[in-house]
Amino acid sequence: MKLIKHFSSTILAVVLLIASATSIAESKSTQEIMWQLYDAIAYLLPLSVTDKASFSDVDEALLEKHLADLKTGANKLADHGATHDENFALLAKSFNVLTQDIEDGFRGEWPSYSYYSLAELTQHCVACHSRLPADTVPALGQKVLARINTDDFATWNLVNLLIATREFDTAMSKLEQALLDPKTPASQLEYSGQLINYLRVAINVDADVTRPHAFFEKFLQRDDIPYYLSYRIKHWQKDLVALEPYLKGVTSLEHAREILRRSESASRVPGDSIRAVADLVAAAKMQQLLASTYLISATDKAEVYYNLGIIALRTFEIDFSVPELEYLFISAIKADPRGPFAAKSYRYLEEFGYLEDPDAPP
């Protein structure tokens, strides 16, 4: 029997962006859009991991209704995104594109990249949540999780769903449990990016340094940690303590620059994730700047987008594809097309970009 289980990654990816957008809804009408999308996804998600041959007539009828609701809501979300900063507008646009992938998937036309949609949209979710306080959307997480069986979910997929529905404490606990599991070698956890993902949740989303600092003390007690990784984690702990005042304090562009200089002085080796804590703290502060009215000049905005793109390039390189990277460089160019960051952004976009998008500069 033909299962459509691979397609559940795409469905789950869309849940991530919906939940993010729900949290930023300023008006009743926007909230209604988000809940319309949620209702569609709450039905489509469990259906996406069901044997298609087992669909009932009722399932087929409701499938058409919810696919139509999803498409309508996505169009409205794209319009809403156009009123926000350039990066969010592009995120909303990519959500709109994904809804077509979902419809194609249910009709049996499997896009080769649908399996990787979750990895791509995870960063969209984080990009939105890193601008927001770590509160919850009442009942959203419980309602979504009550509709699906998560037993077969990989740890990080489940964590993504928990982050998307703003169940941050549970997400952190699941990650900590996985990272301390002796069945997975410590070096494998590092190569797979799970340690960076843990930091990303703690810093970008939850703005917390105490919990990861204490957790790393437990992690360092493992007897399979190589020297380089032990050294790196101890450096992360020092950065967590040193940068907490920046993370909790007043946001300014100069503070973000100071943190970025600290990051770039930590290692002479390209790709060395020893700078991850400083990078993620700097990114969190710069995302806050974009959400505020602090950035007045076009050049300042371009600088922030450009630096966020550089950080994405350094911290997301383990992922299959990271549209957030492309969108940030595109946003930097659009913010100040003739400014000092435009050519540099285009160079990295051309070299590292994966995205074929009409919004990308020619």
Q: Based on DSSP secondary structure assignment, what is the total number of beta strands?
A: 0
Largest sheet: none
> Helices and strands, in N-to-C order?
HHHHHHHHHHHHHHHHH
Strand content: under 5%
First-to-last CA distance? 45 Å
Radius of gyration, in Å, reads 20 Å
| Helix vs. strand class | mainly alpha
Query: What is the count of DSSP helices, taking H or I runs of 4+ residues?
Result: 17
- Chain-averaged pLDDT: 74
Outline type: globular
Q: Percent of residues in helical segments?
A: 55-70%
Instruction: Enumerate the spans where pLDDT stays under 50 for 5 or more consecutive residues.
Output: 1-7, 19-28, 109-127, 318-322
3D structure, described in words:
The protein is mainly alpha-helical and 362 residues long. It has 17 helices and no strands. Residues 1-7, 19-28, 109-127 and 318-322 have low confidence and may be disordered.
Write the layout of secondary structure elements.
Blueprint: H1 8-23, H2 28-47, H3 57-81, H4 86-106, H5 117-129, H6 140-146, H7 155-164, H8 168-179, H9 186-191, H10 194-205, H11 210-219, H12 227-248, H13 253-264, H14 276-291, H15 298-315, H16 323-335, H17 342-352
